[in-house]
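Collaboration report, partner site 2.

Our partner group contributed sequences for two proteins of shared interest, and the home lab folded both. The records are reproduced in the order in which they were received, starting with the first partner submission.
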Amino acid sequence: MTIFLTLSIVFLTLICFIFEWFPVDITAIAVMVLLMVLDLVSPEEGISGFGNSATITVMAMFILSAGIARTGALQIVNELLFKWGGKHSTRQIFTMGMIAGPITGFINNTAVVAVFLPVVEDWCSRQKISPSKLLMPLSFITILGGMITVIGTSTNVLASGLSEKLGYGAFSLFEFTKLGLITFTIGLAYLAIIAPLLLPNRKQANSNAINQDYNLKDYVSEMVIKPGSTLIGKTLQQSQLQRKFDMDVLELIHNGNRFPQPLADKLLRAGDILIVRGSRECLLNIKDEKGIDMLADVKFGRQSIEEELSSGEERIGEVLILASSNLIGSTLKDMRFRQRYNATVLAIRRGQELVKERLGQVSLRFGDVLLIQGPNQSFVGLQTSRDLLMIGQRDRETLRRDKAWIAIAIGLGVVLVTALNWLPILVSALLGVVLMVFTGCLKPGELYEAVRWDIIFLLAGLIPLGIAMSNSGTTEWLAKGLVAIGENISGYWLLTIFYVATVLITEVLSNNASVVLLLPVAVEVAKNLGFNPLAFMFVVTFAASNSFMTPIGYQTNTMVYGPGGYKFLDFARVGAPLSLLMALIIPPLIILLYGL
């Protein structure tokens, strides 16, 4: 009965993850509570995920990564990228891989992508190439690079913790580095040589790129206030234009003088020109009611809308919703985005979908790209935001560049102390966190902003599910079924089956969930058939992170989905051959390097 109950909860968890009825971290916490209510785990076991060494280590690594990124230490490689990248796709991807890949072995890959994404965008702009040619390879490179060391991804750290709990000891820092380096090299070769033939050319690479990518003329217009208009003599706030209609006033032009945001208290007069965001249908609806005429695109004929909206003290640009953003789940209206950031959202890009109407009612998601317009000073403030990432080169003044070498030294020290076994990974990582604060690389308040709390709660909620599977005998029951299959096939094919199964589950769930569910089962199967448990742990760990076929299977894929303007199936076209390649080489490499 307990096995059936546990499997039912596992199935329910999978359904919730797949259909995303709730955020994955909320689902994980709900599962944790349900397990305690049904007495499948004790209260102590239920909350054990919060005190698990893997959870704390992952939290510390997020902070260390933020310290290194916040000081601009990773910006040092920009010059190398521009110097060595060249103009050919193969050379560009290879150069990017040789720089970003090894870094990702020691710094969380979402942090690396967050730093490199605006750098690559700027690089593409200078080279006149589409960002879609390089952003997907950037994501895949960081996924492959994260498998070089145990601290490269949260999945590796979790797998190490599970190994210790199962009685096989935690992984050493370079436990699977040989395998990671080989797969990284082969993967990079594929990305540099084959992928350019498959990568789409989704986004424009010219001076009017934003105008063309977002079709601004469809919803950005000029309107003039006619004599006798009911708006004359009122402030913009009193006019109720923005409150009653699905539109935003971006600029006001009076007698040739431009007035940027904020505009709420600006008095409206006859002849004033308003540059507005709104659908043509909406603007036509208010035309007669308010005494406003739509102008022909006279100005926009002389220069692009993008140039018009970026002239003077105004600017137009893109920002990405980060995974740790407090804006996720909120609407622009709920959070009062315009008042909060002194900028107006013109459109929202969600993968290939472009949202242009009723923006205030759209719930924001991780990976959404907001096209915004506002004063230059507002963009300076956005560069320090923990919720939004500017897609475009950041101003270096916002970084603590004088602390860069201190941050690098702390990071290298953590790696060295761990590698020499002077301290466990958990202790050395926490020591690094303390030093980041004491040396001023991070401010105390930034510690909490640096942590991906959704990942922490996901881990804390899933670990009890693994305990419940063990306590109820579900792991053993599943293993017995696989043992019956394994007795009739070779160890190589059994490793391959686990690899493929883990990859498929990762694509629809999360890498951490895949490890929690499958690693104990794989170990149990190995024990029963007399195989090397380490080999089976490695195959599950590598498969869980090798998510290349969808934009939702791995966080870095989601981060480049919108900025690259990709379609959903673009990832399958480029990622499926890479997934197949990894499935063919990783099982035999594990057997060769670690034994079966």
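Second partner submission, folded after the first:
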Amino acid sequence: MPTPVEPVDEEGSVPTPVAHGRDTSGVDAAVRAEPGLIRTRRIRRWNTLVIALPVLAVAVLGWRRRALTDDGTIFLRTVRQILAGNGPVVNIDERIETNTSTLWQWILVVLGAIVPGDLGRIAVYTGLLLTTAGVALALDATRRLYEAGASTRLLPAGALVLLGVPPFWDFATAGLDTGLGTFWLAGCWWLSVRTRAEPGPRERAGHAFWYGLGVLVRPDLALITVVFVAGAWLALRPGVRGALGQSAAAMALPVAYEVFRAGYYGLLVPLPALTKEADESEPGRGLRYLWDFAAPYWLYVPILILVAVFVVVAAKLPGGRHRLIVPLTPVVAGLAFVAYVVRLGGDYMHARMLLPALFLVLAPVMLVPMTRILAVAAGTVAVWAVACVGPWHPAAFHKDDVSLTVNVRDSDIGITDRSNADHTRTWEAAFPALRDAVAQGLAQDHPVLVRLDPGGGPGMLLPLNPVYQGVRVSIPGGFLGVTGQLVPLDQRIVEVWSLANTIGAHLEYPPDWTKRWPGHRKPVDDVWLLATDLDPAVTLPPPGAIGVTPDSLAAARRALGCGDLKELVASTRAPLTARRFLDNLTGAYDRTKLRIPRDPFAAEAKFCR
């Protein structure tokens, strides 16, 4: 019997088979494709779980260690002043910028206006939310780097290091800008990976705008901005016009705010930047600060393992100019930031300044493809993490070295007697003497300068300088955050560490500055405190004033009324007219460079010549 011949169409192809009027051509293909689809779904579920579990762990650990620090509370007075309609100031009659994170300050303003409840608690929970979201975004970026959504199972590696470092949990909250910084860094990494898709001009401008926000998150993050912008240029090769457009997008908001800052405050940087003297170099102390971070957690163990992992995975990335530029960008940014922190001399807070660098260098290896060798490496890091954070390794929970750094969490627990001091009332209750001193000053029938007793006894009440019109009490405070909570918004704070003190921030370092904690190296000497806040009719220094004589007090007062020093005071206290704004703007550079000799006689000779 002859074999039937299948009909062909006019073009010579075999027509689609039809069974009972139904097209069955795709059935066999679907059957063949089904195992692949099932495998893809399983891989996606696995990778989703690999991302979700570290994110959940960060959220849980951050929640367990949630707390508001005094430094975090510093933000809240300015936020409350803004919400009260007094502007971004600490004292209502003095324009001072004491918050280093402009963006975090204004985020709290928005949240404070729309969310009911304690501002301190809002800051704590928002910081935890941003930290958690930042870790999730960074993990997703690393997943995209390896194009693993459909073909490759991933394992957590660098993410385990974040989970193994207790300071990362502590600063997930704290009321500080650290959570915002984590989220911004994660966004930079995510957008950097996105450059592999060759984004168009508008999207590139959006990337650059995000990178440019770094200086508003924290001024020192400008260094990281530069590295990411440079990495985007190298990866995309946008040409002169494109590079100029991206630069303009990155600089637009920071430059606009800088004009406002210079005109409003009369300076180019926040006061804490002057206090910390970023131009000074102290690499010896900086190296000790780096070791103080690495040693308690054996951090060098996972870092060395992950360096080897990075070499392996980077070598297998797809070709093209993105192959090494993209994963190297955060690593270079992190290492540059480490060098900056070391040169600066570190910080008094254990680990805080190095957390952004750690996050960046871990970014390309947060997750790694599942191969036999990389699985062994990830497993070793997991063993390190368990060994590091377990109760069998108490050294991981850093103890204070008062000559170098402070574990802020341990210190704050000692002050507040609470393991989760996440409310401003907890801090207020921990300073009854300060609360009583404020009440004592407000109860007087004339304006007073309250000199607190270091021993906790009754404060000394002195006549206040009448230049502060409407102010009934002025309180020198060593804990700026809690002082800002206890002193009413319409009363005056004299911050003694110079982080919110115009005269103090411009003072020269004392001779023993290298023996002091970073950020606490410019205490306001009694002679300058009294010269600004004691009634000029009082010519004799009060009992207990250290190193103050009638002649030195008179010299300091004369210096405050002369030349550039008089103009410095006017830039913060004179009414903000259009002319004052322009004078502040044009004189901001010279004013930022101005330094005041600590010796009042030398200051008088310098400014009154």
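Feedback sent to the partner group on the second submission included the following. The chain has a mean pLDDT of 89. Residues 432-478+491-607 form one domain.
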